[in-house]
Design goal:
It contains two helices and nine strands, in the order βββαββββββα. The protein is mostly beta strands. The chain is elongated.
Length: 166
């Protein structure tokens, strides 16, 4: 069977930066429902029509993948406001810079009692190269189609939800 709308697709995925540095590799096969906008549109288009055993490679520019880096999505917060055990690399939910909406931030730096919080996706602003190996393609069951509203995919394959910072 070829990859088409309604197909349940199993992939091995490897993600590199444009310099060939490994960023992510699927630890096991990843499964998604084709045609349900679970993955980046360019990836879905590149996989369309492929069959099990196929290999394909695709480079995405920032605007096609994790978005451009936005410095307005970075803010400072007192460590005391973040609780105990805060470390660089942790993800925390906090109020946006103007205090209106809560967002998910990555703590990118800690100094002098202050943490730098960044709501950009960790790969924002980067062009990335994906390598896919199609492992299996089959028609999805009605139950699998019904469950497609909440796919379980790693962040590096799924389009980021735009933060609601204003």
């Amino acid at each position: 069977m070829k990859i088409a709308d309604g197909a349940l697709v199993t992939l091995d995925v490897t993600l590199y930066d444009v310099h060939g540095n490994l960023l992510e590799k699927s630890e096991g096969p990843l499964v998604y429902l084709h045609g349900h906008e679970d993955i980046f549109p360019r990836i879905e288009a590149a996989l369309e029509g492929l069959e099990p055993g196929a290999h394909t490679e695709l480079q995405l520019e920032p605007e096609e993948a994790f978005g451009d880096y936005d410095p307005e999505m970075v803010m400072l917060a007192p460590l005391a406001d973040l609780g105990e055990g805060v470390e660089v690399g942790m993800r925390v939910e906090a109020m946006g810079p103007n205090g209106e909406d809560r967002c998910l931030f990555t703590i990118t730096e800690i100094a002098e009692g202050t943490a730098v919080l960044d709501a950009n996706h960790p790969l924002a602003g980067m062009a990335v190269r994906f390598i896919f190996v199609v492992k299996e393609v089959r028609a999805a069951t009605d139950e699998e189609i019904a469950e497609a509203d909440s796919p379980i995919l790693p962040d590096f394959l799924r389009p980021p939800e735009p933060p609601t910072l204003h």
